Structures are given as structure tokens and as C-alpha cells.
Amino acid sequence: MLIPIKILNPKASLPASAYGDGDAGADLASVEELTLGPGGRALVCTGVAIAIPAGYGGFVQPRSGLAAKFGITLTNAPGLIDSNYRGEIKVIIQNTGGEDFRINVGDRIAQLVIVPVEHAEFEAVEELPDSDRGAGGFGSSGKDADGGW
Questions:
Q1: I need a labelling partner for 110 at 20 to 30 A (CA). Which of 14, 34, 78, 118 fits?
Q2: What is the pLDDT of residues 71-94, one digit of tens each?
Q3: For the domain that residue 77 is a member of, what is the CATH number?
Q4: Which domain holds residue 63?
């Protein structure tokens, strides 16, 4: 799939996958320099805008290495880019770690996954069809293998 992209900032780079066709996501890079203190969050610019085809959505997700090593995550993960949005892609990054985290221009800060989506219509009904789970919510399936809920 070819996605049109507009470079909005000369420091920007095209989203790119690290290993090629086997990667589900393409890395998004920062065009800003900043330091996030513990618990801090920031809206970080990528300097690019894209035209996602109708019938698809772009999902901005955390990079697992940043999360595991430094506690860096995305506050609204996954962030959704609608197919009719043409503005700059920005990423809400949060530092859940215990130390300052430095972001430099060109650092890969998140990944973008393009996914088919269905347009849903909703209909009000008196009753929902039954299911095995029913209305059971958080913790309704019991303890995890490690004994936690």
C-alpha cells in the first residue's frame, strides 16, 4: 500500500520499518529536542502529515524497547489517525520511569500501524443477544496464572 506523505518540517523523516516487510509498524521520529522528567508528558511533533486511504485507520503505538528500558509510553495508546485527517502527526509521550528521558531530533518515538477499519452504524435495542461472558467486566474471568486479578 502506498500512502501519500507530506514533509512539514525539514528535520522530519519518512516513517520507516526497521526490518522491512515483516514489520507491522513504521517508526515515527521526533523533529524536536526535549527532556521528559519522571511522570512528565509532552505532545511531540513528527513533522509529517499523511493521507490514509478511506477504509483504513492509522494507529500510533508505543515502541516496546522504549517502554521496557525507560518506561516511555503513549498516554492515549493507541492514538487514532482517521483517514480524513490531514494535519501533522503528533505523539503524546509520557515518562513513567524514574529518571529524565531525553528526546533528540530524529529519535524514533512511536510506531504507526495502518489497519483496515469498518464504518459502524448503531441501532438502539431493548435487549442485547446473550453471550457466554454476558456483562462480566474487569476481573470477571478470575485470577491470572501468577495469582493476580
A1: 118
A2: 999 998 899 999 999 999 999 999
A3: 2.70.40.10
A4: 25-116
